[in-house]
Amino acid sequence: MLHLTWYLACGMLLHLIFIESAKGEFYSSIDSMQDLVKVEENLINATRLYLEAQQKQLYIYSRFIQQIKQEQKSARTLPNLDEYLEHPLHSFRFLKRFVYDWDTLILGPIVNNNPREEFQHSVNDLFENLGYPNSSEVQGAVKGLARLQKVYNLTASHLADGAIHGLLYESQLDWSDCYEIGVQLFDIGDYSKSEEWLEEALILLEENLEMDHSDLYVSDIREYLALVNFELGHSNRAKSLLNENSAQLTLKYLENSRSREILEEGDFPWFANYSRLCQGKRLPEKQDNILKCYLDGKRHAFFTLAPLKVEQVHLDPDITVYHGVLSSKQISSIFTESNKKERIRSGVAGENGEDRTVKDIRVSQQTWLNYSTPTMQYVNRINEYICGLTMRGAEEMQVANYGVGGQYEPHPDYFEFDLPPDFDGDRISTSMFYLSNVQQGGYTVFPNLNVFLPPVKGSMVLWHNLHYSLDVDARTWHAGCPVIVGSKKIGNIWMHSGSQTFRRPCHLISDRHKSLAYRN
Ligand SMILES: *[C@@H]1O[C@H](CO)[C@@H](O)[C@H](O)[C@H]1NC(C)=O
Ligand SMILES: *[C@@H]1O[C@H](CO)[C@@H](O)[C@H](O)[C@H]1NC(C)=O
Ligand SMILES: *[C@@H]1O[C@H](CO)[C@@H](O)[C@H](O)[C@H]1NC(C)=O
Ligand SMILES: *[C@@H]1O[C@H](CO)[C@@H](O)[C@H](O)[C@H]1NC(C)=O
Ligand SMILES: *[C@@H]1O[C@H](CO)[C@@H](O)[C@H](O)[C@H]1NC(C)=O
After folding, report:
1. Contact 366, 492 (CB under 8 A)
2. Has this prediction a pTM greater than 0.70?
3. Which residue among 372, 391, 395 has the greatest number of ligand 5 atoms within 8 angstroms of its CB, and so is best to mutate?
4. What residue stretch is flagged as signal peptide (predicted)?
């Protein structure tokens, strides 16, 4: 298949040039991709310098050749060449040409090619820290697109046209983008999405049939479509897509491989409700609670002059948004601190509570900030004043950034069993600070509580993960929906139950029954 040979060849070239492979991971955080944007600017400059140097060199070569031709021409006007060389000045020039000119002007520079070496050095320097992105990056971004399609119910042609919920992107995808996405989805076994993208590639390619080799590309895409259809169990359609020329190898593949198990989409029982809330649609369910917005100047003396702006979004369990808690200046200072630290891909706690593993259910990057800078001291204090709990035993603030299709599927914040050894009790409360606005998507949703919250920069959401009895409250399962457009940044602080005896006394009677029905 043409596609494979192309990309294999390109990949090998890049590996010849770049010794280092990817170190970081780019697709899971917009911040990381911004690092790559700066690198690309430098790469453009390095390439321009290289081209200019080469052009200068080429100019020197061709002028030299021209000069020699000129001399040879005048030599040939003499009756014979010997006569030309008999002239001492001529033979001097002739020999000098070999000893010096050819060597220093042409052969040396061509063999050494200094501009190329300089180019290679500067490219290596550019990628030394970041690493060069490899195919896993494209795969991550493609998975992100597939996730957007699934959660927001978008077709491939919606995305290819650049129309997302009525908002027109500047960039549209062409047939080869769609083809690449289809191939990547095929590789990760998402066959029905792969089919959709390959069909879209064919449609777009058919608008470009005057292009060179378009017939080759068409049969290439049809071949992939045949494989996809075979994997989906549509073997008749698969065979109809192949023509005699291209089909031999593929048919062999089709006959020899058994159909793999197909992943059912929307497998999880929570998926429909989650997806609906992510789209900003409430579940069809009566809302009995009367919710209020109010100013609160009494909670703590700190709020006497500047009362808290409180928005209730759910009662029992209470979920409350506090608006305007952090200023833009404070948020920039948080980013200044977090940018100094290495971002790592967010993990999820393993089943045994020990190992943290990287999984697609959580696509973001994070750092942890302690409370030593003035801004973080402020964050510490205001969180304590709002929650009415002590920060003793609280974790450092986790600052997370979500990239293309970045998300965190429904999960609880409590541990319940297998508390990490340094934990003083379980995570009694979550304070989620929104550190950016998100143009589209990225809502925080509580599928059990019929609640969705669009991120609002500077606001903070607070809820308790434990009942007063300290039993876990499964109603608080929540999720970060995939980001469609924008860069989502949040800061989470988890307070622990161990030190709250006097702040939030335990109830003697368990109220755990309230949430038993919601256990996932
Ligand atoms: C890409 O690089 C990352 C990080 O170095 C590595 O984990 C991953 O296996 C690489 N993927 C491929 C396809 O080489
Ligand atoms: C690239 O070169 C241009 C023009 O020389 C310069 O203005 C720009 O700052 C350079 N960019 C980087 C990232 O060095
Ligand atoms: C998804 O969108 C299609 C129309 O494009 C609609 O028919 C279908 O009902 C939607 N599915 C869900 C689950 O919203
Ligand atoms: C989804 O929401 C509906 C309406 O609120 C509810 O009746 C149903 O049980 C929910 N489904 C799941 C799997 O939680
Ligand atoms: C807080 O973080 C800073 C920067 O990473 C570090 O220098 C400092 O030692 C840390 N302080 C505490 C108390 O951990």
Report:
1. no
2. yes
3. 372
4. 1-24
